[in-house]
Specification:
This is Alpha/beta-hydrolase. By secondary structure, the chain is an alpha/beta fold. The protein contains ten helices and eight strands.
Length: 312
């Protein structure tokens, strides 16, 4: 009980402790506000803020680094959800996951060629993971989190063609020893753990996913020592440069590989002949031409045979 109370208190105070650092709101940092829009662009980020934080919250500076460094047009939109704490945490996180999926679905429908990046911190870190891999079915801070399904890696908006990178920082619900986790807290579970179903759903994205978890973070690495709230609050001070570089490289590499395939690992590359047509198109035209020529030759052959017989 005491441990649960401490964890809840830490989560409640995340936004207040960090409010003075970095860009938490659009009013504080108009250069961040300029990146927030829903228009079609090369790379579009969906970000889930931490508990009780204002929009856009702690991920602001990281998103600007990504947009400044990535090759192409870039922006973000907030995943709209309560980011509530205490007994409301479970309902809040579920609303974030299901609402975020709906936002991604609507955007992907309007902008099928855009590449999507999913980000989250603290409760928002769990939302990002649940959005991708499915979540719920567990007890967090004393409440029961409803179940939500995973996105389908073979279909929009979760397809390989569209989701090209995802990053989560200090997620509340996390399992130890996952290959996509970095940081000293990797060997510890979070406040709660993901179900096997949710882990399987998240494994679809393991090649483009990274989760940061510090040792001593009382939210994502329960039981690690020394436990200190600062270890949950310093991700963006410590890792912004590293994380932004990883996101950029992963997103660009994934996007490039999809240009050489159909979005599901099937190679459909077509070399251009300079007039906008690929080898596959040229082959089809060549076959059609040969078939047409054969029909013409056959016609003249039959006609010639008939005339020869008549003249005899």
């Amino acid at each position: 009980m005491r441990s649960s109370t401490i964890l809840a208190a830490v989560a409640v105070n995340v936004s207040s402790v960090l409010a003075a650092d970095g860009c938490m709101t659009n009013e504080q940092c108009p250069e961040i506000a300029a990146l927030e829009h829903e228009e079609c662009e090369d790379y579009h980020m969906f970000q889930a803020r931490g508990s009780t934080a204002p929009y856009p919250g702690h991920l602001s500076d990281l998103m600007k680094l990504v947009c400044d460094g990535i090759d192409g047009s870039c922006g973000f939109e907030n995943i709209v959800y309560p980011a509530s704490n205490g007994n409301a945490w479970c309902s809040s996180a579920n609303q974030g996951a299901t609402g975020g999926q709906k936002q991604m679905q609507e955007y992907a429908k309007r902008c099928p060629n855009s590449k999507l990046i999913v980000l989250g911190f603290s409760q928002g870190g769990s939302v990002a993971l649940d959005l991708l891999g499915g979540g719920g079915g567990n007890k967090v801070f004393g409440c029961d989190q409803p179940v939500n399904d995973a996105l389908d890696r073979t279909k929009a908006p979760g397809s390989k063609k569209q989701v090209v990178a995802a990053a989560s920082f200090g997620p509340t619900v996390r399992n130890a020893d996952q290959t996509y986790t970095v940081g000293g807290g990797r060997d510890f579970n979070g406040t709660a753990v993901r179900s096997e179903r949710a882990l399987d759903g998240l494994d679809q994205y393991s090649d483009i996913l990274r989760t940061w978890c510090n040792e001593g973070d009382p939210i994502c690495a329960v039981g690690s020592e020394p436990m200190d709230v600062a270890n949950h609050l310093n991700y963006f001070e410590r890792y912004n440069d590293e994380a932004s570089q990883w996101i950029i490289e992963t997103a660009e590499k994934t996007a490039q590989s999809m240009k050489q395939g159909d979005g599901n690992g099937q190679n459909t590359t077509e070399e251009s002949n300079g007039n906008g047509k690929g080898i596959i198109d040229q082959s089809k035209e060549s076959i059609a031409s040969r078939e047409a020529l054969a029909k013409i030759l056959f016609f003249f052959l039959v006609a010639g045979s008939i005339m020869f017989c008549m003249l005899r």
